[in-house]
Structures are given as C-alpha cells and as structure tokens.
Write a structure and sequence with these properties.
Layout lengths: L6 E6 L28 H10 L7 E6 L3 H8 L8 E4 L5 H15 L4 E6 L3 E2 L2 H17 L3 E6 L10 E8 L8 E8 L4 H10 L2 E11 H11 L1 H12 L3 H8 L8 H6 L5 E5 L4 E2 L4 H5 L10 E2 L3 E4 L5 E3 L6 E4 L4 E5 L4 E5 L6 H5 L8
Parallel strand pairs: 1-2, 1-4, 2-3, 6-10, 12-14, 13-15, 14-16
Antiparallel strand pairs: 4-9, 5-11, 6-9, 7-8, 7-9, 8-10, 16-17
Length: 358
Amino acid sequence: MGEVSSDYVLILAGGSGTRFWPLSRAGRPKQLLDLFGKDSMLVQAVRRAASLVPVEHIFILTNAEQLEEVQRQVSELINSSHIVAEPLRRDTAPAVALGVGLIAARDSQARMLVMPSDALVGNDGAFVALAREALDLAGREPALITIGIRPTWACPSYGYIERAEEWHDAALSHTCYNVARFCEKPDAATAARYLESGRFCWNAGMFVWSVPTVQAQLEAHCPQLADFAAALAESTSPHDFIAEHFPELTPISIDYALMEKADRVLNFEATFEWDDVGSWISLGERMPADAQGNAANTPLTVRAAMGNIVYAAPGKQVALLGVSDLIVVDTSDALLVARKEDADRIKQIVEQLPPQLT
C-alpha cells in the first residue's frame, strides 16, 4: 500500500456459533463456515481489512479450539504470528485489551478498528470508506467511535445504541452522532419503540479509537484491563505473558466494561449492507426458496409443505411431506429437526449432546 500506515485492524474470531449446530462445531463455528459458496466470513473479513490497512497490520484473535482451522483458512493471507489464541474464553473486553496491548507494542500512537469476523458486509468499498473516515477522526478526537447499523426491523436479539445530537466536523463526509447510551437486547415491544423513534441503531460490535484514547479510558474505567494491556505492550515474551495472565482477567463484554461508561462515545451509521446471519432463520432468508417458502441449499421434493428451511450436502435430494415451519439440517454425523420458532434455543440442546458432537 505504499507508505507505512499507523492504522491497525483487530478481528475477533472466537465465537462459538452454537445456533448453527450441527453444521457448526466448537472447532469450526459460524465464522469459519462457507455458508454461501464464496469463502468463510473470516476469510471475507480478512480481505476486507486488507483493503484498509497493510496485511502486517491485521491481527486475528481466536481461541485454542479454533486456532488450527483459522490458521488453515488464512495462511495465504496473513502471517501466522498475527493469529493469537486466547488460552481461555474471557468475553470481548479482555479480548480487546489483548489486541490493544499487541498493537501498542508496535505503535503506541496507532489508530485501530475492532471488528467481528462473523457478519456479512454487502459493500466492501462503502465499508472501507467509512472505516477510513472513522480512523481519521479517531486520530483527531479523543473519543471511542462505534459503527452502528440502521435497523430494518424491531429485532429483540441485538443490542442497540441510542444517538444524541449530531457531531459536527467539517472534514467528515459521513454523518456522525454523539452517543446517548447503550441498550442491551430489548423485549419485542421495546425494540418496536426503538425502531419507531429513529434514534437507535443496532450495535454491530465495530469500534474505532486511537491507542492513547482507549488506554486512557481503560485506565479510568477498567484498571485491570488497562494494566494487562500496558504490561503486554512492554513484554519481551508476549506469548508467555498472555498464557500466564490472560486467564486471570474477569470475563466481561466490552460494552459493559467500557463502552457504557466511557466519557465520550461517537457513532457513525453504516452506509453498507450488514447481516450478522445469527441463526438458521436468517440464513434461510438468503437461500433460494420455492413458491411455498421452502428455502434450501439442495434439491427439494415437496408436497403440502410450507415455510421450511433445509440445509444438507449439496446435491442431496430432500423430500418434505406435510410439514411446515421446520428447520432440517443434515450433516455426515448428525441430523437436526426443529421448529423455526425454536431457532434461538438450538444452543440449549447442544449442551445436552455428547462432547464429540459439539
């Protein structure tokens, strides 16, 4: 990319993806699956990040169970030394602190984008343009910056961000707002009020800040994480330091630990298509469907069947007779049959399965 960039990207790739069982497993969750025949969401995320910063400025944070598959998928895109496995799952706040420490060790004044690996982005060019503007703003303003998604329906399974007054900066081409508050996953009625008000966006888990700004905010609100990040940045053996000290960190989300308490938070509304594809229901909406609303990735024979979602080995013939609103997922070692209304409960049955099937 020519000149050396002070911008970095931290990709969080440690999610469990249990809602996509039996296709997803502990070692190969949603972000590592090729659900749409065009590479996994992780590979897409790395390529997107590489359009924004040099590949040597991209870090992937995963966990020990998924490390081997992550390395296999991105080995031709990123140096393996930039793929870091958490020794234990500690939620997103410790993960972010780890990323801050790794990046601060390389550039104490760097600007960084934190983004999840398990969402679809429909327009990479629009994403890169907005991310670049957010990074530039983070270099000028001591603020924590979020990128939110305009709600298309009253979804109760997303967190929300309430915007306040517009933030004015003559250098910006995208609209930016002050953040009034973060809101956890609401009930359906509250989500409907959020949508109607027009003041709320979905919290997509994308954050932008400078290293000095986030370190100062961690020191003010999360001293344990601030101390960990600072010590990691100075460590002569980062791998050993992480192995010894990361498990000591308190598990907590970045929203609870920092974003809800931070002194100054700004919000850009995404100008790109976004979908976190959070369940078989949302995946079904992206698969071809027949006139009766049966969505499938494989050939169907249907009689008196409506509104079903079928996922099986490509080319496998599936017959549906007299059933409606089911999720049917067939893999080599497991078969799931569930009502669509129970899609969010799939993770509960995963807890009852033999370990070799999870």
